[in-house]
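task queued by scheduler; priority normal; single chain, no ligands, no partner chains; default sampling; output format set to structure tokens
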Amino acid sequence: MWGKESGLPRPYPVVCHLLDTGAVFQELWDVVLSDEAREAVSGALGLTIVEARTVVSFWAGLHDIGKITPPFQAQVHACYEPVRSDPTYVSAPGAEAEKSFRHEIASHWSLSELFEAAGYPGGGRLLRKSVGHQVAQLLGGHHGLFGSVLQAKQVAQAAAYNPGLGTEGWAGQRRAHFEELRRAMGAYAVPLSGLPAGLAVVVTGLVVVSDWLASQTSAIVARIPDPGWSGTAADVDAHWQAAVKAAPELVRAARLGRARFSAEEFGAMFPFAPNSLQRDIAEHLPGMVGEHGAGLVLVTAPTGDGKTEAALFAASVLGRAAGARGLYFALPTMGTADAMLPRVEAFAARAMSGERALMLLHSMAWLSSAGSGNEAASADSPDREDPVSAGRGTAVEADAWLRGLRRGLLAALGVGTIDQVLSAVLPLRYNTLRLFGLSDKVFVVDEAHAYGPWMHQLLLRLLEWLGAMGAPVVLLSATLTGRSAGSLVDAYRRGSGFSEPSQVVPRYPGWLFASGASGEVSAARSTASNRARTLKVSRRPVVWDTAEPAGAPVQEGGRRAALREVLAPVAAEGGTALVCCTTVAEAQQTYRDVQAAFPALAARPGGLRLLHSRFPADVRSSITADCESAYGKPSPCDAITARPASVLVATQVVEQSLDLDFDLVVSDLGPLAQLLQRAGRGRRHERGPHGRPEWAMPEDEPELVVLDPLTTPGDSVPRSWGTVYDAGLLMRTSLILKECALEGIAVPGGVQRLVDKVYEDSFVDRLEGAALEELARLDEERLAGEAAERHLAAWAGICAPADVRGDLSKLSLREAGVTEELLSTRLGADTGRVLCLYEQADGTATLDPDGEVPVPAGGRHGLGAVELAVVARRVAPVPGRWLRGGDSGGGVPDRWGNHPSLRDLVLLRMRPVGDGVWRCHHGRYVISISGVGLEAE
């Protein structure tokens, strides 16, 4: 019976592949699993560690026993013909054509009976309680989805329900393979009980990885049996011994080992002394963890207070205690993930040892390694080569095998977007592989406050699973409400087996620790801040006139007039300012208006910049780098002087993880948490007595100017904002800012109180009349919307680990109406992606306005890696509504292939219209691109 054939000189016997997979699993058990995980699996099964290693490796080998069926064997005619003519292997008419009866389904159906015959404990008529059925269901999920629990009558008459299993001759051949594999591997021990959900996920992940490693063409070709190989006991034993000998190199080449958190002191991890927050964690967390075991750390502190280094130190303490094999650092956006990568890379080089393969994980991460010189690897690379057996030693980067599809989270170290891990708790194919990838790592979440109800609910479910699997967690936030903090901590504790609420009361700045072993939550510790300041808040009542053309007369009391007033000192005396707008369209119009108001400033190189998401990727990257150079942290080696006049007009993209410093921050009204994030970019770094203009002194009293359209009764949120922010939260924030304008906001001391105050139920009690009624109505709408998103996330996501109860199909089950599109995108997101093609005078199209970068032609195998990078670096995101109803001919050419980076990409053929503007018609929109990015009318 053959098991592998594609790309091979001759078919590979299925028994050989089963042995190969079992051998690789044994090596992964030894190299990848921690001592704690091995003890947990053996304890759950009621076996010794040696017995458990052998038995679970035997299970892994059996994963493809379903290939011994007519539908699978019939796929290679030359191999199937002798079997088909043998009366022992007759099958029901049409059995060979049962293509929907895939081999992994056959494994599930056939193994339940085989395990029961081998003495595995049964569950009577409730097969979800049967150890044999649980293992069969687990192995049936090795292609990413679990089948439903079978009924006892289905197992008893399996061939009647599924003719694709074949008749007794086929069952006998599967039984022979089962018994021969068991004999060769010595797997005669019988488990006394099954695995809890968390450990079942771990074993499933190891089975999938073992199968993938053993299925590599290069590994098979090197050991394919000679023609005439007959599979005698001696043949099988010889192949098994060879497989065991070959497995270590397969695992080593794939770089699936363990990183070690070897440094213990803060000074060994970072080249600077700790600040107050970092020092307090360094002094107290090791003792807490030593007494109570690993668990969850929550750090709440202002932007710029060193939360990243505090998190990495905490991860090291937790990782050593838990025996973790690495860490994953999750961030809200691709830009913030890209920025965090070198910091984690530097930490790993200084503070970690062992296998330190580092992966960057987000939808466009592979561009970071495509000719960029970045040493970190990325998932889903277009390069699909076999693993390279390199002798370079251990380094902080990842090799070819880890760059394959779905493999990124298997690396010991990872940095990426939060969506890469939240998909682990959605019923998507291979979600359990993602859970396995996190199961033995420290999970760090930055900007834990930055996620809406949908993603917050999914994060709660993920924390439950991590708690169940004993994976340590570090949560970071600059503006997290006490209610949200409590929900995150309690979700982790629920997964760890502690259901009672913890009554978390965070401190700002400060941190707390929750033990996963005892469930105990420490009292939150307050820490001093090295950057205590008073934020001066200037609340400017304005009429919203952003729609006015840049050259139009300025209306008194309007937003345009207010901007001219607050930016005048910058233009006249020097210094830097950030103007943060609510929408991309308003940022583009504001840029034009500031350009018209201050022509000398705009004419100076670097005098006026614009940053938002609606630029092609390469342009946005260049602007971001330029901003980091102009507004970043000063070098201690340089003489620090006041900077020349410069204004950055931007959207919310500057809120998170970009280390920018401005003398003045101006912002449209937004929720208080977001305003505080933006204010954190004001006078962020110490520049000394000569580092800022006189109008921006003193340095410890930064100014936030808020342009507020809701200052008088009856005012409404500008229509141009749509549903970017909840109107009720904006109204609450406006009222709080009115109070803060008198004395300012103490940072960090007054921040937690204000963040919680925005959401207080009693907030409306201070209002009267129409204002009370309006806010009550808006609150009701917000709470209803948030409840709907939470409900949808709970409905669409997988169940909690405690609810699996022996039925792994709950991890793959989708409710009616839950589609792949819904599960793969954030609720409410309406984003498309475009590639502009610039039509030149001779009728040809190029990828750049200057006509120097030709459009790649592609070929039979699609675009090559370099061509893909050239294309993808010019892709830009746009609202999805711009693209609906457009010409269907705007899709990607067939000869470009089907790489994930090209999926749903729309090509726009732009024509020049003068003054650097290019334009095209698409559906009901006219889309243009110029120096301010993409726009639509």
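post-processing summary
- The two ends are 63 Å apart (CA to CA).
- Residues 769-796 form the longest helix (28 residues).
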